[in-house]
Amino acid sequence: MVRRIETDYQxxxxxxxxxxKRDLRKYISNGELLxxxxxETISIPIPQIELPRFTFDTGEQDGVGQGGGDxxxxxxxxxxxxxxxxxxxxxxHTLEVDVQLDELARILGEELELPNIQPxxxxxxxAERDKYTGIRRIGPESLRHFKRTYKEALKRQIAMGTYDxxxxxxxxxxxxxxYRSWKVKHNPEYRAVxxxxxxxxxxxxxxxxxxxxxxxxxxxTWLRYQYKDLQTVYIVHDAVAKEVTQHEFFHLRESGGTKIxxxxxLCMNTIEDRFGGDEWNIYPFHFSDGDNxxxxxTSTCIQLLRxxxxxxxxxxxxxxxxxxxxxxxxxxxxxxxFGEDDRIITSGIPDRDGILQSIKDFLGKGR
Length: 367
Known about the structure:
With 367 residues, the protein is an alpha/beta fold. Strand 9, helix 9 and strand 10 form a beta-alpha-beta unit. The protein is built from 10 helices and 10 strands. The chain is flat and about 95 Å long.
């Protein structure tokens, strides 16, 4: 019975997995998963149809729904109908299934054909973990292996002829005792930080911020699957940049101008103060509608990227969300300045349907 349940459960998980892969574009574009996230799982709504089943009548009762009845008989005795009209459509039911975020990341990786990231930096950082690998004759009593001790005592008594099947009392002696043995296993662990930067000037509206929020969730999901120790920093800017909380990052709106270099300079200061050293894998992401204060400030941004940020980052990603008020010039300037440099990735996000391709642009190089 246990095996049957396990088989059914695995089959159910496969069905859920297939449904998620089929509807992945819908989940990404409408952002309905963002409010369902827990610490390690996320609730995914899966439409389902209730299977019909037979209910047998005993034939002992009369009335509508219970046996024989005449046309026009009221159901509840008063003959009055309820509000609204009867429908002829099939009922739609929704089942919420908890899915591990690691499993969701694997589905995303398979669907977008994302390569696993090859971490950079110092690989000597390791987490120590005790792993029980064998049995030995000495050890603390807290690690005594009961089953192995019992078997040794049983074998000894049978060999000595002292075992009585009618009175099967097994008494271990010191030589029968067996203990679990262990060794310390060193698992290399890489550390990573995502530094999100976003323009919050007046030209970035609610819809633009929502597209950034959706994309950031999937980027986080994939990178947390790749790195066990992942830190996140949020920086907003108009003419001035500042570090904020996650909630402020997605909801703050300013009315000033746009000076992108202020965000890049604050990003570099944050990296130097808190994430310096070879052990960190660094991922700066910047989202904007493409407007900047001046061509001079754009030149400053390019200089900061070329001389300071790109040499220490795994990859720098710039996502340009389409806005009715944005010119889109900044992406063109970056593309012209860096050409085929694979340390920097730019991606246009015209609408929610463009989020999936933008995620693939950013994460598809395995850096």
